[in-house]
Amino acid sequence: MRVLITGGAGFIGSHLAERLVARGDEVTIVDDLSTGSIHNLKALKTFNNFEYFIDSVTNERLMAEVVDSADVIYHLAAAVGVKLIVESPTRTMKTNIRGTEIVLELAAKKKKRVLITSTSEVYGKQDTVPFQEGNDLVLGPPDKGRWSYACSKLIDEFLAIAYWKEKRVPTVVARMFNVVGPRQTGRYGMVVPSLIKQALLGNDLTVFGDGSQTRCFTHVTDATQALIGLAEHPEANGSVYNIGSTDEISVLELAQRVKRLVGSNSQIVFIPYSQAYEEGFEDMMRRVPDLSKINQLIGYAPSMALDEILADIIRHHRGELNVVRTNELGKFVRISA
Q: How confident is the model at residue 273 (pLDDT cuts 50, 70, 90)?
């Protein structure tokens, strides 16, 4: 199979590419490296059935060529991370909406199959837990930059479903819930890699707000398996599916668990949202997916418990940071980056 992955140098995209290349698919990646990393493609470069372009999905000439040669398109390219979104709402809207428009317009010419990745952020202020795909969605006001990402991804969803209904382009939407794993960066506010790096280095563990907000974390191997299952299932056309875990934990409890698993003496400190992001920042206090729809379609269920997920990420970051524990001080010290 010939596969195109936009945003393929990112955290999820690179893991997805490795999985598809390993099974023998011909994989092409387009990524402008705005949030992805060329380092994520290191293992892929040795394969003959892999190629990549460092370019934007808004380059319509390039996109026309790579879409035309693909059997399946995984559209992952997007502005990601709460910190980036709050700081750059214009870039967020432009990247997410225009990029999706281009992919769908080009795919429509030859009815190429397209999977659009969306986000649990679209549930917004919804307080009916667990979140079901058919729930009403409640977003905050437009003067809160935090909601620009959710709004743009929701428009992506409407576009994908409209292309299926109007033009019979086989599309499917995957709403991702807090996917974590090796190679995810904490640079844009992702909580798990941020806490783990802080604990490994003996720094304070920063928790935003009072830490009572809850999340459900999914390992990237489970998430990519679900993406492939949805992309290749003909009955998924024109519909939305949650991908995630139902193992709910507060961010404060997460920080405490990271401390225990790392064996860290770090202190947990609380940072007001206004200091971390912007004045008047609004968070989603709970994110718990209902997974019955995707389970019924492809049999998806997460396979890794949270402690197993965290242990895997800790191993990865220990290797990346190359840290050692001193016997004298009992602290973790960075010896190389």
A: confident
What tokens appear for 254 in the block? Answer: 């997460």
Pair 171, 108: CB distance under 8 Å:
no
Residues 1-13: pLDDT tens digits? Answer: 999 999 999 999 9
Q: Is the distance from CB of 206 to CB of 190 less than 8 angstroms?
A: no
Contacts of 170 (CB under 8 A, 6+ apart): 111, 112, 113, 114, 164, 234, 237
Helices marked H in 145-202: 147-167, 191-200
pTM, whole model, 2 decimals?
Answer: 0.92
Domains and CATH numbers, the chain: 2-184+218-243 (3.40.50.720), 191-212+249-284+306-334 (3.90.25.10)
The answer to whether 10 and 42 have CB atoms below 8 angstroms apart is: no
Q: Checking DSSP bridges between strand 214-216 and strand 72-75, what pairing results, if any?
A: unpaired
In 10 A of CB 193, how many CB atoms? 21
Spatial contact of 288 and 246, defined as CB atoms under 8 Å apart: yes
- Please list, residue by residue across 278-294, b when 16 or more beta carbons sit within 10 angstroms of its beta carbon and e when fewer do: eeebbebebbbbbbebb
Tell me the two tokens of residue 165.
């209904």
Mean pLDDT, range 74-86, rounded to an integer: 77
Q: Is the pLDDT of residue 323 over 70?
A: no
Residue 149 designated active-site: yes
CB atoms within 10 A of CB 201: 18
Among 149, 241, 277, 300, the active-site one is 149
- Can you spell out the DSSP letters for 72-136? EEEE-----SHHHHHH-HHHHHIIIIIHHHHHHHHHHHTT-EEEEEEEGGGGBT--SSSB-TTS-
Mean pLDDT, residues 57-65: 96
Q: For residue 131, list its beta bridge partners.
A: 289
Per-residue pLDDT reduced to its tens digit, 181-204: 999 987 766 899 999 999 999 999
User: Collapsing DSSP states into helix, strand and coil, what is residue 234?
Assistant: helix
| Predicted pLDDT at 86 | 67
